[in-house]
Amino acid sequence: MVSGLINENPIVYEIKERRDVRAYSSNTDELSVDAIDQLEVKLNICSAHHIRDIKDPEHPYSLEQLKVLTEDSVEVDDTKSRVRVTFTPTVEHCSMATIIGLCVRVKLMRSLPSRYKIDIRVAPGTHATEAAVTKQLNDKERVAAALENPNLVEMVDECLSPSFE
Amino acid sequence: MDLMEKLELVELPKLEGHTDRVWNVFWNPVSTLPILASCSGNNTVCIWEHNSLSHSWSCKTVLEETHTRTVRSCAWSPSGKLLATASFDGTTAIWQNFGDEFECISNLEGHENKVKSVSWNVAGSYLATCSRDKSVWIWEVLGGANEYDCAAVLNGPTQDVKMVQWHPTMNVLFSCSFDNTINGHSSTVWAISFNAAGDKMVTCSDDLTLKIWETDIAMMHSGEAYAYWNHLCTLSGYHDRTIYSAHWSRDNIIASGAGDDAIRLFADGPSYILLLKKENAHDMDVNSVQWSPGEENRLLASASDDGMVKIWQLATKQ
């Protein structure tokens, strides 16, 4: 057992069955074209872009398994090209919160068309310094500088790398 | 208002050449031919010149192999002969133009980490830099501009300092920062710009507003230790993404560049109305806007995350 972790005993949740995007759309005849598009984009962001699968920096579980991210975490406005991801750190004093947020931002930056504006925030009420963390995660200059730090990039790449279970 | 309906920003041929986001643009203040410097996330600086015969802009020189990280900001000295470039590698390089070549004649070290902004005072005798390390450094230019001595290190700011800007006529230095509480904005202040007279300034912020401030310039000139800057008004409701840059032109038009890829122009007071909104000025965030110094041209340069530098002509619609 490794000691010194921020959260030694995370709660691990069972994840829902993955929905196949194509199967889902074929069941939505009654929905308007716009609604389908929105849903598709949202599902794409969650599943195809696998932010759910981003690994927690400390534990061998995905952010989805730890309920740091859920389907409701992602809000999309495709017409305005805006995405907002709200994540919930597992513990209030989690110092990994900034890394997690950075991982989500990097994954989305790599996956989405460049016209998308990405906002990442800590779920209100879930972290001791949520305002500070959220502010840093949305400061473009800070993010750019962080991504020039080889140690941070290594950590982020590790969290983003696929795990083969 | 008539003026509002008649203005337009006409895009001149694009300046392509950077391979990464462009953070900042700066017009050479004295050159008779327009010259523009731009700096980028790929550690390089481009010097652009206009060819009046072909009516095109080309990257005349690339300044590279000096900075090892993003070049965040660049500024020409008032004489137009020196270019200072500030980098996330913690240094500020000084380049001198020798005919067709630029040479790095000095490298200012001292900040603990990323340098974010550099500004020359009106006489070109001092240079100020600011950094993520929360300090502002003032460097004195000695002798033939090859030597720079650190004259002061100011540790006033409590947070990451985004920009420093000397007053246009007096040796007073202003800085704005990640810590917004100092001047009334409710989030990070990204830039400051003064009007030509130096009695008004505009600040722009992550809080989606521009704020206009004024001072009693006579009081400043009389040597009062502290001249109070009075908040004149807040321009809110015009931007819905962070405003990264604002620049006050010599003929009193305020340009803003924002995270929604648009450039906006506002008139001077008392109304400060929105004169023009150029949507999709770039394909990504606009990081920097600057009016050219010449009085006839009315050119506006802009830089973006999309890797482009664009030059716009302010014109009246026919």
Describe the structure concisely for a colleague.
Chain B: Belongs to the WD repeat CIA1 family. Chain A has 165 residues and is of the alpha+beta class.
What does the model show?
By secondary structure, chain A is α+β, with helices and mostly antiparallel strands. Chain A is 38% helix and 10% strand. Chain A has a 3-stranded mixed β-sheet with strand order 1-2-3. In chain A, helix 3 runs parallel beside helix 4 and helix 3 packs across helix 6. The radius of gyration of chain A is 16 Å and the shape is globular. With 318 residues, chain B is mostly beta strands. Chain B has one domain: Methylamine Dehydrogenase, Chain H. In chain B, the strands form 7 sheets. In chain B, strands 1-26-25-24 form a 4-stranded antiparallel β-sheet. The model of chain B has no long low-confidence stretch (mean pLDDT 90). Classes of the chains: A alpha+beta (165), B mainly beta (318). The interface between A and B is medium-sized, with 12 and 24 residues.
- What average pLDDT do the residues of chain B reach? 90
CATH classification, class level of chain B: Mainly Beta
CATH superfamily of chain B: YVTN repeat-like/Quinoprotein amine dehydrogenase
Strand order within the widest sheet of chain B?
Answer: 1-26-25-24
Q: Could you spell the SSE succession of chain A in H and E letters?
A: HHEEHEHHH
Q: Give the uncertain stretches of chain A in residue-range form.
A: 19-31
Spans where pLDDT lies below 50 across 5 or more residues of chain B: none
Using the coordinates shown, work out and report the CATH topology of chain A: GMP Synthetase, Chain A, domain 3
Distance between the termini of chain B: 16 Å
Largest sheet entry of chain A? 3 strands, mixed
How many H/I helices of chain B? 2
Q: How helix-rich are the residues of chain B, as a percent range?
A: under 10%
Name the beta content range of chain A: 5-15%
List the quaternary state of the chains: heterodimer
Structural class of chain B: mainly beta
Q: Which chain pair shows the most residues in contact?
A: A-B, 12 and 24 residues
Shape of chain A: globular
GO cellular component, one term (chain B): cytosolic [4Fe-4S] assembly targeting complex
Family (chain B): Belongs to the WD repeat CIA1 family.
Protein name (chain B): Probable cytosolic iron-sulfur protein assembly protein CIAO1 homolog
Organism (chain B): Brassica campestris (Field mustard)
